[in-house]
């Protein structure tokens, strides 16, 4: 009897091993049963399993979990030398572990928690087995010896997940890296934490999980770390693919259910997506090793259920504009500061950062750079921009619905939560009530999706000061400084830019829940260095422009990037009569003062060089600019000319290009007639509509 019992004890269940590992050698229970030559399932034998077998297995594992948790609890109560954080035996929810622990405790869940999760995963796997395999059959008779397999699971966690943990440890030591690389590293760290806490053992995705594991081993190599600065673009692409892959693995059970409802071949669909991610990761790692930049197409594969978001208000044209990004290598200090805030693991970090400063300091360039980086590395985010010449659209009434749609388009968990809310109340899709939008379309879905989002969620709101009158943003400011905003999930960030208008400064300046950063306080040396880089790129190739001239423009700009841009536009040879050097001399000798700023002086100089102050040209200038500034939305030159044919006065029937062709430095749509004509910077609008600043070029729109 004892001999038979010891034989039984040698038969173990082969779960919890890395994919592809060989099964345990099974000893037959009696002389009449030989070991199978083929490890595939014997379906006929499997179907004859006693009905009570699974129940026994489940009861054992449930007792094992409870025992493990009880032991952990007793240790926490009896160990008086450890702090509350160290007593936590269960890992935090995915997406929050980075911020709920000190930096040295965020790398991985405790071993006991990892084992508990694996056992729970095994129990769940048993729930889905039908019919049970021959291996499962044999376990019923030896259930009391599963402690050995329990140890194997623990060893699996230590070995299989080691690359993720090692990478996280390395990331915490990296400080002097490009901010673009830093945000990519943040995404990779978040994805690794998700994979540590939610290892999916489904064989269908094991090949993808193995490739991700290999990728993290590669990222932890010394040679890879040394070349992060030079290969930051490739690193960002790797982060994007890893983020998508981790999201796919995390949502795999929901995805399978969706495919099943759609009547799709689950294995085929899974293999197609996994193979695509695997090939792309292989290509990107090889590109990194070769230190080359090739055009590798990243096929973003995110599986979304066909949830009804149709009819949701959306502000078209209010999103990211990559042409506004900072020149690479400029604004590094402020970008580092913002990325550091975004990737901070401190749970108490303010969720909102207000970036402000006078017109021309480069606020929008910084905002679009951050938004672009967030999108490129595969993070979840949204970019919403206000523009003065689109105030008639009342974008403020669509801000939160647009942001919600953007987030739903990037994350399946948020999308499901949002669809659930809209299913309860369809009127929310088009409500102009920003308070309802904020509560039901942002806060509520975030709460439901808490812990299910990979990495940080970054929302950029640019140029809030251009929304319109104070009333247009009063409710938005109130919501963003509310206690609910202060309690947003720890991985949620809102970057908001504006000039410090009185109403905005009063609310955000006095908020304890918002960080404040003023670009007017950026050291002049730093701004001049960045402006020199910009001017060199723009006009450094022109004859007569050398380092002396570039330095003069940088010093004259006094930290105003918009003025530097205008100066470069002015110097370029755009009309006959003056050499590049003569135009340069004109711009650097501009005089200003007595209430006029350098920007004002530059605008006047540009207008004087293209629009004489004699009666006819000046009258036509005012007429054309009045038309531009008062249309409901910006229009291309061809359409503007067509509208003028309907003007009643005979004096108004002329081609507006006679005025606009000289105004390329301050207006878009001049060289490309299909592009809407609009001021390139809001400060030009302000200049034209203020008589004390524009003088003869004042445009009166008071009765429009």
From TrEMBL:
Keyword Methyltransferase: no
Record Pfam families: NPHP3_N (PF24883)
Signal peptide range in chain numbering: none
UniProt keyword annotation of Ribonucleoprotein present: no
Domain of life (superkingdom): Eukaryota
Stretches the record annotates as Disordered: 1-116
Protein name: NACHT domain-containing protein
Organism encoding this protein: Pisolithus tinctorius Marx 270
């Amino acid at each position: 009897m004892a001999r038979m019992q010891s034989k039984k004890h040698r038969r173990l269940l082969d779960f919890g091993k890395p994919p592809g590992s060989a099964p345990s050698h099974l000893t037959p229970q009696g002389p009449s049963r030989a070991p199978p030559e083929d490890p595939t399932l014997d379906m006929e034998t499997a179907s004859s399993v006693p009905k009570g077998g699974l129940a026994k297995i489940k009861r054992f594992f449930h007792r094992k979990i409870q025992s493990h948790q009880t032991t952990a609890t007793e240790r926490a109560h009896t160990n008086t030398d450890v702090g509350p954080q160290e007593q936590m035996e269960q890992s935090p929810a995915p997406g929050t572990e980075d911020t709920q622990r000190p930096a040295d405790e965020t790398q991985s869940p405790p071993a006991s928690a990892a084992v508990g999760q694996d056992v729970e995963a095994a129990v769940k796997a048993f729930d889905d087995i039908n019919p049970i395999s021959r291996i499962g059959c044999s376990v019923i008779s030896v259930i009391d010896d599963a402690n050995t397999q329990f140890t194997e699971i623990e060893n699996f966690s230590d070995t299989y997940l080691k690359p993720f943990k090692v990478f996280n440890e390395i990331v915490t030591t990296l400080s002097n890296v490009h901010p673009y690389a830093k945000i990519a590293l943040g995404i990779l760290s978040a994805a690794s934490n998700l994979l540590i806490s939610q290892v999916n053992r489904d064989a269908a995705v094991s090949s993808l999980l193995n490739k991700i594991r290999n990728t993290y081993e590669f990222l932890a190599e010394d040679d890879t770390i040394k070349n992060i600065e030079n290969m930051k673009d490739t690193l960002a692409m790797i982060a994007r693919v890893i983020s998508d892959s981790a999201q796919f693995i995390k949502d795999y059970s929901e995805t399978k259910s969706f495919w099943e409802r759609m009547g799709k071949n689950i294995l085929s669909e899974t293999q197609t997506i996994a193979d695509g991610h695997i090939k792309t990761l292989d290509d990107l790692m090889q590109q990194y090793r070769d230190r080359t930049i090739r055009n590798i197409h990243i096929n973003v594969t995110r599986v979304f259920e066909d949830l009804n978001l149709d009819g949701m208000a959306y502000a078209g044209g209010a999103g990211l504009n990559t042409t506004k990004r900072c020149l690479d290598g400029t604004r590094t200090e402020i970008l580092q500061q913002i990325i550091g805030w975004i990737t901070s693991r401190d749970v108490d970090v303010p969720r909102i950062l207000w970036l402000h400063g006078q017109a021309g300091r480069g606020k929008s360039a910084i905002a679009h750079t951050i938004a672009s980086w967030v999108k490129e590395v595969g993070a979840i985010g949204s970019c919403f921009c206000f523009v003065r010449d689109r105030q008639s659209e009342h974008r403020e009434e669509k801000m939160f619905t647009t942001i919600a749609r953007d987030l739903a388009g990037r994350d399946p968990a948020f999308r499901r939560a949002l669809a659930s809310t809209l299913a309860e109340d369809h009127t929310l899709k088009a409500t102009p009530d920003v308070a309802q939008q904020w509560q039901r379309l942002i806060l509520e879905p975030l709460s439901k999706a808490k812990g299910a989002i990979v990495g940080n969620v970054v929302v950029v709101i640019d140029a809030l000061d251009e929304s319109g009158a104070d009333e247009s943003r009063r409710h938005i400011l109130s919501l963003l400084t509310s206690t609910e905003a202060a309690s947003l999930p720890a991985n949620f960030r809102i970057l908001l830019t504006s000039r410090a208008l009185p109403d905005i400064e009063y609310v955000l300046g006095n908020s304890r829940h918002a960080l404040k950063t003023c670009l007017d306080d950026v050291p002049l040396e730093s701004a001049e260095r960045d402006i020199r880089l910009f001017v060199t790129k723009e006009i450094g190739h022109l004859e007569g422009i050398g380092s002396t001239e570039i330095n003069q423009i940088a010093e004259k700009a006094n930290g105003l990037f918009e003025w530097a841009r205008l100066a470069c536009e002015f110097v370029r040879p755009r009309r006959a009569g003056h050499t590049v050097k003569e135009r340069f001399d004109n711009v650097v000798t501009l005089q200003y003062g007595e209430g006029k700023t350098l920007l004002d002086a530059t605008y006047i100089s540009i207008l004087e060089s293209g629009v004489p102050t004699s009666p006819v040209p000046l009258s036509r200038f005012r007429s054309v600019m009045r038309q531009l500034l008062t249309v409901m939305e910006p229009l291309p030159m061809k359409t503007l000319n067509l509208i003028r044919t309907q003007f009643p006065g005979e004096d108004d029937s002329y081609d507006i290009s006679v005025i606009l062709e000289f105004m390329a430095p301050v207006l878009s749509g001049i060289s490309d007639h299909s592009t809407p004509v609009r001021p390139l910077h809001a400060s030009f609008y302000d200049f034209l509509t203020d008589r004390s600043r524009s003088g003869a070029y004042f445009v009166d729109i008071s009765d429009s």
